[in-house]
Design a protein that fits this description.
Length: 211
Amino acid sequence: MVVLQSVVPGLLFMCILLLDQSIKKSLVEEVRDLNLSSNLYGETKGFIRSSVDPLLTSAYESVANARQQVSVTPITENPNNWTLRDPKLVADIPRYLKTYLMGAEISGEKKKLLLTPWYNKEGVHSLPQSLNLLYESLLQYLLPNEKHTIEIHNHPVASDHTMTAIKMVRITLIVSCLLLVPLTVPLIGASYVLFPIHERVSNSKLLQLMT
Ligand SMILES: *[C@@H]1O[C@H](CO)[C@@H](O)[C@H](O)[C@H]1NC(C)=O
Ligand SMILES: *[C@@H]1O[C@H](CO)[C@@H](O)[C@H](O)[C@H]1NC(C)=O
C-alpha cells in the first residue's frame, strides 16, 4: 500500500522534475561567448578618412592591423565614391562581401571630434567591430603609453539552437502533461480501493480499521 501511495507517485514526480532540469540546462548551455574584439573575418580591408590629426589616423591603422588584421587605407575623398571606384569590387559580389567591412570617418576639430564609423551590412558583426575599432584607436590616441583595451562581447543564440530548444520544451510539456501527471495523481486516489478489499478479505469493518 505504501509503495502504491507514495513511492510510485514520488518516482514519477521525480521524473517530471528531472525533465524540467535537463531542459533548463540545455537552454543555458547553448548560449556562447562571442569575442567581438578578436579577428572574426580573417584578413580584410578598411579605410580611414580623417582631416584632424595624422596621429589619429596612424592609431586607427595600427589598432586595426594588430587586433583584427584589417589593412587600412587612408583616403581623402567620400568613402562611397572611393569604394565604388574599385571596379573589381563592383563586379565581384563575394569580394564585396569580404572586403571593406570596417572603416571610419573623423572630422571636426581636435577638441570636438565628429566620429562616423562605417560598416558593411553583409558582415553580421561588422557594426560592433567597427565601433570597437574606432573607440579603441581613440583610446590609443589619447593614452599612447598605456596598455588599456576595450573589449566587446556578445552572447548570441543561433536561430537553429532556439528552434531545438523550443522543440525540446514542447516535447517535455507533452510528455509531462499528457503522460506523467495523469499517471501520478490517480495512483494516490486509486490506492484507497485497497481499504475495502482489505475489509472484505479480513471481514473487519472499514470504520473500525480507520479509527
Ligand atoms: C578577445 O579578443 C582580443 C583580441 O584578439 C584578445 O586580446 C582578448 O584576450 C580576447 N578576450 C577573451 C576574453 O578571450
Ligand atoms: C561622389 O560621386 C558623385 C558622382 O560621381 C559626385 O557627384 C559627387 O560630387 C562625389 N562626391 C564627392 C564628395 O566627391
